[in-house]
Amino acid sequence: MNYEKRQMRLEADMAEKGIDALLITHLPNIRYLCGFTGSAGILVASLRGLAFFTDGRYTEQAHAEVRGARVVIAKGMPMESAARWVGGQRGRQVVLGVEGEHVSMATLARLRKLLPPGLRVHMVSGLVERLRMVKDAEEIALLREAVLLGARLLDTAVRAIRPGIAETAVAAELEYAARKAGAEGMSFDTIVAAGTRSALPHGRASAMPIPKRGFVILDFGVILAGYCSDMTRTVHVGKPAAEARDMYDAVRRAQQAAVEIVAPGVAVHEVDRAARSVLRRERLDRYFTHSTGHGVGLEIHESPRLARSKPSNSARSDREVLAPGMVVTVEPGVYIAGKGGVRIEDMVVVTDSGCDVLTPATKELITI
Ligand code: ZN
Ligand code: ZN
Q1: d(CA 235, CA 242)
Q2: What is the largest CA-CA distance in the chain?
Q3: Ligand 1 center to 202 CA (angstroms)
Q4: Residue 94: DSSP 8-state
Q5: Are 260 and 357 in contact (CB under 8 A)?
Q6: pLDDT per residue as tens digits for the range 296-317
Q7: What is the pLDDT of residues 321-341, one digit of tens each?
Q8: How far is it, in rounded angstroms, from Cα 147 to Cα 9?
Q9: Distance CA 150, CA 358 (A)
Q10: Burial class (CB in 10 A: 0-12, 13-18, 19+), 280
């Protein structure tokens, strides 16, 4: 990984925002910037370079993994060492940025007590996350591997599905196969939602047995070398009625329309609109209750969010424009309470001219 390039880009962004030092506490951001994969540490990026603070449990790991930052093993709390180090900065006025979205009120209060007077603390939002939005070639290769491993698990899940078996048993087979294939873990709680439960967009596998007839939504992902995969397929137990087939077909066409529009320069809300307008023609858009997709990388949900545009909202999130190297999901769905739901999700990478679909699995309706 090219940590030096990432660190230089962060420094340039900090200079532009007038931030002299940035206290990075969000672990995926730390991993992205210096390579540390442990679960406790603080990275400070500053005019004096980078320093990584952790405790004695991570001495060996920090020295082995951290790139481009001085490693400091704190005697007490890493936060105290980090604050002392920031306080020792030269210069008349130091502006310290903290990751507003990731720091609790309690931590912030403690931090203010530790810092010398005169040091200004600024909340920053998404500074490192913005860098992480565009993946480099090495990251795309890792994401591709994670997606391939994940997609191979669909067969296992499909083989496990039969009426009467609990959703959790299907999830168990899938997760066991994932581990055996080398996954570090699942990127989120596996979703197996059968029958009327398929109308729950986030129906984590429950003890409910698979009914004799109906949709089963399978939404799952693996973590490989730190990178997440995310895919959804909806299968049908028993012969689907015409209405179920039409619903599946509408979601499939909506998903395809959204994938087809993904290209550099396209605003994220346009991808969402492409999916939604197919469903609107089928009078199903009111059952599509979430956004069309999200970025994926070291975390399962990253920027950008492929959401509907809100004219009243001055936030920039829906004005985000796709750029080569972004890896996003495309996952429209339809959920009808009391009946069932369908979702189809692929991961795609934005290329120079359009996009590559990373997920290789079929989108034909599988019936069991
Ligand atoms: Zn998913
Ligand atoms: Zn997703």
Answers
A1: 15
A2: 74
A3: 9
A4: -
A5: no
A6: 999 999 999 999 987 655 555 5
A7: 999 999 999 999 999 999 999
A8: 28
A9: 11
A10: middle
H or E segment and range at residue 355? strand 355-357
Judge whether 106 and 192 are in contact, CB under 8 Å. Answer: no
Angle at 121 between CA 117 and CA 122, to 5 degrees: 160
Number of Cβ within 10 Å of residue 187's Cβ equals 23
- pLDDT per residue as tens digits for the range 29-38: 999 999 999 9
Q: Which two tokens stand for residue 289?
A: 């209750």
DSSP codes of every residue in 202-231: T-B--SPBPPSSEEEEEEE-EEETTEE--E
Q: Which residues surround ligand 2, an ion (CB under 5 A)?
A: 230, 329
Q: For ligand 1, an ion, list residues with CB under 5 A.
A: 219, 230, 232, 345
Ligand 1 centroid vs 292 CA: distance in angstroms? 11
C-beta atoms surrounding 283 within 10 Å:
9
* 168 Cα to the center of ligand 2, angstroms: 20
Query: How far away, in angstroms, is 232 Cα from ligand 2 center?
Result: 8
pLDDT surpassing 90 at residue 82 = yes
* Residue bearing tokens 């998404």: 126
